[in-house]
Give the backbone structure.
Amino acid sequence: MEKNDDYFYIPQLKKRNRNGKIFKWVCASALISALFFLFIFLFDMVRQGYPAFTQAYIETEVTFNEDLKSNPYSAFDSDSFSIISRAWMRGLPRMMDEDPSLKGTEQKIWALANAEVDQYIKGHPHKLRDREQKIVDRMLEEGSIESKFNVIFFLTGDSKIPENAGFYSAIIGSLLTLLVTMTIAVPIGIMTAIYLEEFAPDNKFTQFIEININNLAAIPSILFGLLGLAIFIIFFGVPRSSPLVGGMTLALMSLPIIIVSSKAALKSVPATIRQAGFGLGLTRWQIVRDHVLPLSLPGMLTGSIIALAQAIGETAPLIIVGMIAFVPDAATNILEPATVMPAQIYTWSGMPERMYIEKTAAGILVLLTILLSMNGVAIYLRKKFHTKW
Amino acid sequence: MEQQNININVAKREKDNKDLRVKVEARDLDLWYSDNHALRNINMDIYEKKITSFIGASGCGKSTFLRCLNRMNDLISDVTIKGKISVDGHNIYAPGVDEVAVRKKIGMVFQQPNPFPKSIYENVAYAPLMHDIVKKGSDCDELVENSLKGAGLWEEVKDKLKEPGTALSGGQQQRLCIARTIAVKPDIILMDEPTSALDPISTQTIESLMLSLKEQFTIIVVTHNMQQATRVADYTAFFHLGEIIEYNETEQIFINPQVSKTEQYITGQFG
């Protein structure tokens, strides 16, 4: 017979179990709400941003003659003139220069529609007048207005004409800036970490330095912008708005993060490995180079990439060093004025035209894609270089 | 004073024995970890091609002294060492002596098996290559084979030299560490509780390995396990609170201890 008495009874056990359960659910709900907000954010960005990846084009007849060169607007009747992008019309003389066979001919080509037409067919608020709306409706029926993939967004720089504004110069600016940051911050950061962790004596002075590096990692980024302005631009005379000055400023900002994470990676290599090396009469440098570094490399790479990903999303310090400027043409080297993705997004977010709203969201999507792929690379490298033991 | 007399007695008697040669001499050695006086006036002769074991309770200074012998304590900041340790009459703490060169002559095996996270072959070959004992190629292959044979591991790993050393069992890893140490061709091998992380069967293997290694090397072993000292050691030193209380032939220490503290320890009354 099984006895069913109080042999295994503890008075508060029920309450203890209930408390545990409540705590578990509180923690789980924190995670759920975080996921919820993330989902809302992503959903909203995609919803607002995806229309920017298509753009309205109008099939129109253009007469390529000498007049077009001096006044491209004259090639259109008043109907088309009011719905075709001015920026596109201004590009016609160049089109004719590039292809002289066009001269004197009449061509049917797909012309870029202006922002209002684009917003109208996307169903967004627009400023088309009734007459223009009727023209557009008629053309839609005829099939001479189409939404096409928006190459302009990826191939041109910023513009004050919304349908002609693109993200290209910002992407190039960001890449150049990131290149400068990476070249400066990663080697210096990793070598500093190796020195502090493996070679430096443990005394008051090195402790002071380490505390300050940890503090630097927590400094508001805009202060690095002021530092960059004061030192690089005013003292050293590095060109304002250039990827060089932006990259150096971001390098200052990334350095402490790279140093701290590289130090952590070195610290995670067990002391027994170093002892084994010393016991065999190896020098410190041999031990670090061949045994400690291979083990800590994945952690260092991950830390560096995360720091760079943070740098690529940074706006405040770059505004201070002038990278917020209106830059229609992509920089071709690190000394030319440039803008960066987050600064471009910030600029667009303040523009009055309706079309910039979707451009802002689309810019955020591009930036997020680049950040996520950088993190993906970090994960891949960590997996690839991970040494099993 | 009592302990000094005993040690000198041992030294005297052994000097009469013509087979014995003093390999390591410690004279008036004192060591402080900042303010903590961890070793007090250590005087000791360690004989060549014998196994000498250090026993004593935790914190008695036996590992600290072992680490003095290949200057591993130099790696810890805030350590002060006074006195002299000579190997074959050469002071290892003399100015101008590089601790790296000392450690090449005096190898060390640790408590936890700590192979490098590399292949078995690389584990053995790395240090000899760095010391220019061999060049890459057949010489190196031969050295790896001989070292692994010396550590009694060759038969078990000869077909998987490319596999990571960390994939071996604990006992095999420790023998790999021994193979790695003898590949550098040291004179002396220090072992810091080499079997305390191992199972009884692996322990037995390591112990018989130690007995065969003493034909070529002077072995100094720190052990927590008094039975191990009786099984492998020719000489045993008993440490207590930073001092050598008694140092004698192992048999004498365990059968006929001269100091009551030693007797208390070996009979399990403390420690």
Q: What stands out?
A: The interface with chain B takes residues 201-203, 270, 272-273, 275-283, 286, 290-291, 294-295, 387-389 of chain A (CB under 8 Å).
